[in-house]
Amino acid sequence: MEAVAVIVALMFAVFVALGVIAVVRSVRAVKRGVDRTVTQARRTVEDTRLKAKQYVQPGAPGEVAELRLSLRTSMRATQEALRVAAPDDPSLSEALALFKRLSAHGQEIDADLKRLEAEPDKARVAGSLPELRERVERVTHGADSLRWAAQDRARQFADDDLVVLSEQIRMEAGALRHWTTEEEPQATPTAAGSGARTPGTATGVGTEGAAAPGAEPERPAITARDAWQPGYSWQKTRRPESTT
């Protein structure tokens, strides 16, 4: 009885541990989902604010908002393109490493632009814009180059695969239509059979090349269609001719 009680207690402890692990994993999954949703919502709100500020506030404040929006849009598009293409193309690992380094510079520039938004001195803002604009252009150009290269690479792979697939389909279609291939031309009649008759043919006596009187004619070779006769369950079996 004591052994049974120990086994039952161990099983109960295992079930409780498994339940706790399942609950913890579920909570973590829910938390990650909530974090992603909150991050996406904050990103959408920030982009909407920058778009509104770009058109509402002219001058340096509107240009700062335009630079931030351009930087964020380019970096986000490149990140998504590399994330989608990387699992199918291991060669993009170097591109991912370069984009990670580029992202650090992009985040630094975005932080500088964000601080510049809150700067009350308009002269200082106008003086800092040329340098920041150049840095934003360099970062966005690098991000766009990586994104376009990854997209061109994926499109080239798809085109090459389509060419190979089309060739395989063409070959398979030709193999399925085997009855349309030209048969080998029959042998041309000899001069003895097509020209003047020899003494043997005139007197009715066969020559060396003539067939014997009782010989059977040569049967045609079995073609691929005759050799392969598929049977289907709905076909009726042909009855012998002697069956009434």
Distance between the termini: 82 Å
* Weakly predicted, low-confidence segments: 191-212, 219-237
Would you list the SSEs in sequence order as H and E? HHHHHHH
Structural class: mainly alpha
* Shape summary: flat
Blueprint of the fold:
Blueprint: H1 2-56, H2 60-85, H3 93-117, H4 122-176, H5 191-194, H6 199-203, H7 224-227
Helix pairs in contact: 1-2, 2-3, 2-4, 3-4
Question: Can you give a write-up of this model?
Answer:
The protein is flat and about 85 Å long. It is built from 7 helices and no strands. The two termini are 82 Å apart. The model is unreliable at 191-212 and 219-237 (pLDDT under 50). The protein is mainly alpha-helical. Helices cover 71% and strands 0% of the residues. Helix 1 (2-56) runs antiparallel to helix 2, helix 2 (60-85) runs antiparallel to helix 3 and helix 2 runs parallel beside helix 4. The chain has helices at 2-56, 60-85, 93-117, 122-176, 191-194, 199-203, 224-227.
